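Title: Comparing notes on inverse folding

I've been comparing how different people in this forum approach sequence design from structure. To keep things fair, I'm posting one structure and asking everyone to reply with a full sequence. Here's the target:
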């Protein structure tokens, strides 16, 4: 069973940057489209960005131009570079497959102060 471990969150001022990492166990990582999701208090979990096995990327309109998703298949790791952070980016961030999710990890908290 695949296990996902997110890290890299923290408290940052508006306009700041953070880089999130997500390490996945298991040998099937490289063939899957991976994604980042986030869940703010009182809201449903929402998709943020995804990257295919062929490195095609897609982004939610709310983060387009500010966030960059990448992956390192040799390390079974997916990253989310977050620039120009806004208070509305505050949420717990999770990674998972884009389609047919695995068990969720614990997530990593991102807090952006104004």
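Reply #1:
Here's my take.
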């Amino acid at each position: 069973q695949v296990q996902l471990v997110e890290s890299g969150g923290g408290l940052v001022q508006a306009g700041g940057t953070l880089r999130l990492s997500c390490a996945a166990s298991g040998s099937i990582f490289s063939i899957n489209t991976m994604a980042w999701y986030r869940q703010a208090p009182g809201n449903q979990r929402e998709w943020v960005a995804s990257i295919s096995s062929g490195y095609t990327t897609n982004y939610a309109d709310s983060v387009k131009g500010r966030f960059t998703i990448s992956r390192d298949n040799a390390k079974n790791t997916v990253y989310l570079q977050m620039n120009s952070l806004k208070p509305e980016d505050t949420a717990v961030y999770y990674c998972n497959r884009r389609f047919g999710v695995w068990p969720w990890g614990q997530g990593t908290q991102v807090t952006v102060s104004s």
